Amino acid sequence: MTTTGADLAEEPRRGRPRDPSRDGAIIQAAIDILVRDGYDRLSMEGVAAAAGVGKATVYRRWSSKAELVIDAMATLKPAIDSIDTGSLDGDIELLVAASCSPSSQLLLQVMVSVCSALPREPDLLEAFRTRFTEPRIARITAILERARRRDELGPDVDVAMAASLVPSLMLQRVLMTGQPAGRAYAEQVVGSVLLPVLGRPPRPVSTTDTETTP
């Protein structure tokens, strides 16, 4: 008897179906360990134990620690793709808000834990660059280019350099000082660094740089 494609399609799948809820538990466990212990002390076994799953469950989803960590970081990325208020000031305000959201603040902590491993792990470095730094800078560059087309920026503004300022300085703040890069710090960077680079007058910041929450 010949088995057809239709027959195969009708056969029930063998094995236990994948449980999406486990993905979330594994991702959360990886994030918690990264923030608490750092990248070097994270292991697939430790993540599995923290998530309450078997080690094989983790390896079926992610073949390496680096792959798991990058996917975990991706769940924390700020949503800036849709920012387009029609004005540069409005777009900058939304960028600051996105950079200071709870998930963005958590992402900064995770990124700090990963930074020390980047020079030693080429695959992790490549994924970090192509999935985080380059796309984020490209999106901010697009926002600034739209502002230039609206004649809100002069032709001599270095848009590519300006686009990297806020995310770079916020990461550096956490990496170098261990202090949070909250809303007050983001406003300070925008007012005293970004706006002058964009050819605009600096903006005084009324809040202090002592806040601990975004």
Question: Top keywords for this entry?
Answer:
Arc Repressor Mutant, subunit A; DNA-bd_HTH_TetR-type_CS; Tet_transcr_reg_TetR-rel_C_sf; transcription; 2 domains; HTH tetR-type domain-containing protein; HTH_TetR; disordered N terminus; single chain; mainly alpha; 214 residues; 64% helix
Structural class: mainly alpha
Kindly report how far apart the N and C termini lie. 67 Å
Strand count = 0
User: Radius of gyration over alpha carbons?
Assistant: 22 Å
Q: Point out poorly predicted stretches.
A: 1-16, 208-214
Give the CATH class of the largest domain.
Mainly Alpha
- Percent of residues in β-strands: under 5%
The total domain count is 2
Write the CATH architecture name of the largest domain. Answer: Orthogonal Bundle
Q: Give the helix level as a range of percent.
A: 55-70%
Which fold does the CATH topology of the largest domain refer to?
Tetracycline Repressor, domain 2
The gross shape turns out to be: elongated
Give me the CATH superfamily of the largest domain: Tetracycline Repressor, domain 2
Largest sheet, strands/sense/barrel:
none
- N-to-C SSE series? HHHHHHHHHHH
How many DSSP H or I helices?
Answer: 11
Q: Output mean pLDDT.
A: 86
